[in-house]
Amino acid sequence: MSEKLRVGILGGTGFVGQRFITLLEDHPFFKVTTIAASGRSAGKTYEEAVKNRWKLNIPMPDSVKAIQVKDVQDVEEIKREVDFVFCALKMAKDEIRELEEKYAKAEIPVISNNSAHRGTPDVPMVIPEINSDHLKIIDVQKKRLGTKYGFVAVKPNCSIQSYVPPLSALKAFEPEKVVVSTYQAISGAGKTFKDWPEIEDNVVPFISGEEEKSEQEPLKIWGHIQNGKIVNATEPLITTQCIRVPVSDGHLATVFVSFRKKPTREQILECWASYSGKPQELHLPSAPKQFLKYMTEDDRPQTGLDRDFENGMGITMGRLREDTLFDYKFVCLSHNTLRGAAGGGVLTAELLKEEGYLLSRKEKKAGVSAQGSH
């Protein structure tokens, strides 16, 4: 078996950082060697730093409890202990953008859960089943940064993971207009019901910045590489409303869509049933065997029942009907901290490894070039 890559988690004490840690326990490709956070946590063991703030309903892995937390600003020290890092920091966007590039320029690849670099034209924003071809832009980015191994890749916002995959499966029919409302879990705000008792028996019709991301980020995913940058798609036109609802995990969306070439209901269902991508082709460890699943029951998908489909990495859809104003409407669901956050980041890292962008110490010493090689 090849050497496992050494992984650092920036922002490892937060909700998404905790998800990364649990997903990487006994991972076949990766091993957590470093956890970093703000200066307040630096020097403490991970168990001490988190204390009573462990938010998941599964226990903290024993393998990380004694790891001494480092300050995220100590890039040179962290560089000695990692082959790449996941970033789940909560900081000002400009500070995250600067810090992620600092890591990349120190030859540490960064796979980020943050939005800071999602708009950067030479940074791929990836849903691995949909736009794995965008990884090619990394070679352009490395030239800009002056690096051999270092780069930044990002995953998109959790709010779009429920509806972008089923729409991507229907791209041949040229979606023109899309109206989406998302009903988003409190874990998307890094909260539990213990942290946020006010959300019980309540709905909050506003999530800062979420609607802009939900309308714009799909266009980058559906874009193309031209003249050294990712050029956003111009269609479909998307308008959204994003609402916080009192559920622990799972973002549900209602979708209305019109097509330039209207498909039949049977064609839509066939496209969904057969859709897959590079992760399935490569049999990546975190890849769902079935990416999209249509549920025939009138009252499905339900957040509490269906968010864990394919270990939280699959997307479920239901209630596909013709509409009086649009061509069709349907409901879809994704797990926001698995597919939408840490799980999506891990799957992206698995793809980057298999495509030759993430290398071990041994591979670097052997002079392997850090670029797509498969």
UniProtKB/TrEMBL annotation:
EC category name: oxidoreductase
Coiled coil: 82-109
Keywords: Coiled coil, NADP, Oxidoreductase
Record-listed E.C. numbers: 1.2.1.11
S-adenosyl-L-methionine is among the record's keywords: no
Residues annotated as catalytic: C158, H251
Family annotation (CDD domains): ASADH_C_arch_fung_like, ScASADH_like_N
SUPFAM superfamilies linked: Glyceraldehyde-3-phosphate dehydrogenase-like, C-terminal domain, NAD(P)-binding Rossmann-fold domains
GO BP annotations listed: methionine biosynthetic process; threonine biosynthetic process
Taxonomy, superkingdom: Bacteria
Residue stretches making up the Semialdehyde dehydrogenase NAD-binding domain: 6-138
InterPro entries in the cross-refs: ASADH-related, Asp_semi-ald_DH_pep-lack, NAD(P)-bd_dom_sf, Semialdehyde_DH_NAD-bd, Semialdhyde_DH_dimer_dom
Protein name: Aspartate-semialdehyde dehydrogenase
Membership in a protein family: Belongs to the aspartate-semialdehyde dehydrogenase family.
Molecular functions (GO terms): aspartate-semialdehyde dehydrogenase activity; NAD binding; NADP binding; protein dimerization activity
